[in-house]
Amino acid sequence: MSGIRSRVKDQFPTVLLTLLSMVQALALELLWSRLIESTYLDQLPEHQMSADQDFFAMIIFLTQIICTFVGLIIIWVVYASNVMRFRWVPGTVDSVYPFIIGVLEFFLVEFLGVETLGWWFLTMATVFALMIWVGHRTMLSARLDLDNEYFFRNLNPAVVQDFYPDFTVIAGALLISSYFFVQGYQPVAALLAVLVTLSVLLLQFYKAASFWQRSVDFGKLW
After folding, report:
1. Lowest CB count within 10 Å: 28, 56, 126, 158, which one?
2. At CA 24, angle to CA 64 and CA 91, rounded to 5?
């Protein structure tokens, strides 16, 4: 049995990253297709933007594209860094999460545009919440495996208070989503909302990169 567990732990990172890379490739292809098929790109060369509202809609759409792309990168970084950092015996659900995340990524692309801002923010909140859960579950599984004992030896388990910033982000995205469901498209509010979302995503990327670097530096001591 120990041989099976060892083989599973050795092969799971390759299986997981292969699966995730396929899902991410599809999401990126959809994102690129949505960008090049956008009417905004046709309007730009001839300066056919008819009104300020059209200009706001174009900027919001392009910012959504950037947010979605950054989100895809963060998902890859989180998954890749976890499987390279830790070893654990995965459950069946660990192989299912990439499919769920992939479907949500497809919805993020589908809901791009000012007409579906409420649904886009709702999907973004769902993706963020799911990734928090996946990361937490991975850390719990890794903590129980003796192969990672060196890392968790002096690291206290997470408590509810540690997730308050994440809960705040999720709640904020849900509130923004509710606002656009009720009020509809509001140019200035929409632009501010997507810019705040982009700032939060860039902060999350910085935190993920910093955590990875600290892990690598910590590993040098062992």
Report:
1. 158
2. 120
